[in-house]
Here is the input.
Amino acid sequence: MAKPMDSLIDRVAHRRALRRWGRAADAAASVDLAHLRGLRTRARQLRRQLDRVMHEAESRLTLPLIDSNAIRKPLGTEWAWRPEIWRGPISPPGVAAAETRTMLGGETTLHHDCAVSELTLRQIRNTSGEDLAPFGLRMDVFRFDGSFLSLVIELPHGAVDGLKRKHIMSLDVQVEAEKPLEIFARLNIKHGPNTEQVVRELPMGTDGPQVAEFDLAYSDLNEKRVEKAWIDLIFEGPQMNQIMLRDVTLTRRPRAEI
Here is the structure.
């Protein structure tokens, strides 16, 4: 771990460096060119290190903080989760001309059937005071010659551990788009050889997060054979649009007893 630069000696050295570079800046307009070239080289070397510090500081100190786990939770929530893309930095942070089955981090996969991909995805840093997620995902769609576009999010084991038909799964998505579009959410639960699927449309145009609730009471879920689950976010008519997914969270709660 790097030693903090907060000792008395460090502060004195910092003030001296500020004065020295202040004098260099004042003299830059009048010194000879040979001296100015050397000064520029040293300034560039210094700036590279300063830029590294500023980049890391801006990323870690900008609100909301990285790895923030603040999630809006309905009353009675027993499990809550935010996928990796919206929780912390991924590598690489973006993909241009993204092909189908492109993975973003370790949990989210892009699917489409375009002959020529004109899709760009990039993780962005959220900075609004209303944001709870540290990061968002920006998707730029230009010409789109396919019939479907979706993001598949694999859910962790905690989502299905003890999952019963009495449960309600709730998906909250904070979406911004240049043009109106339809977005559907499909919850997939694999139980034995079968997969239960529940589809809901996100209520676009409403204030705040767009919420889709999956009430498993109306499903044919075999509670004893639940293995895994995933969410499909399906975008209808996405061409010539910029779609910002500012946040995505999932919660699970038991239905109120009557």
